[in-house]
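Appendix B. Raw example, untouched.
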Amino acid sequence: MSKSDRKSLQRYIEGEDDIRQAELLGSGNFSNCYSLPIANGLVVKTTNGTDFVGKELSDVFSNVYDKLMQASEIGRSIGGSKKTVQSIDLKTTLKMLTALRKHGFATPTFYGFSVKANASPDEIQEYQFMERINRPTLEQIFENSHLEKPVEINYQTVPHADYLRQIRQHFESDDEMLGTLVNDYYDFKKEAKRTILDLGDVEMRNLFAYAFDPQTKKFTLMMIDPIREQSFIRPIRTFSSHEEKVNYFKERGIHPLKFILKS
């Protein structure tokens, strides 16, 4: 990154320029992504003060939400259901990107980040700077395709259509190309989850069709915003007697006769 590019980023961080005037690429639950015409294409992911707290404490909020659900739906949770805790904080994101790269998965170039202390709720508190991936996501490809026979990609609406047209030359039909992409997606998902057990949200909306090898006819997929996801099975509650079971549910406002009939 050039010295002038670094100065441009510094102006955004210090508030001299407003990043919200740049091209908006998309928005998530916590952050917005903007494109800047520097460093051969750069994406800036921003998070305001309120959402930054939620993102950094995501695993804590997952546990709090879980406890609330247990309290309000005790009848369902007592049978032993799955509990999922997600971590989407900055530290976890960097660790997951490193783990993906270490195990041979394609990852974007991550230039750095900046976190502002004592930001107001609406003020941008966190900036993340990474390479812009000028490729379509798998979701974008399939959303812009006719999936009933005859299967066709709508090259008029799909992002990065020229890139896909080049790849299409190596297949007899759009159907064959999309079939290969689906197979490569499931292979990626299986291999990624087997290699990095706590990698979460491995869905089509989070994966880019990053590269293609004409010799093997295989796609290389890239995940740019990984999260950590851990699932647990709650222990099933056991009772020493039928009377204890009935009293337990009566104390929680569940009619014992309804419970007996269901059990």
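End of appendix B.
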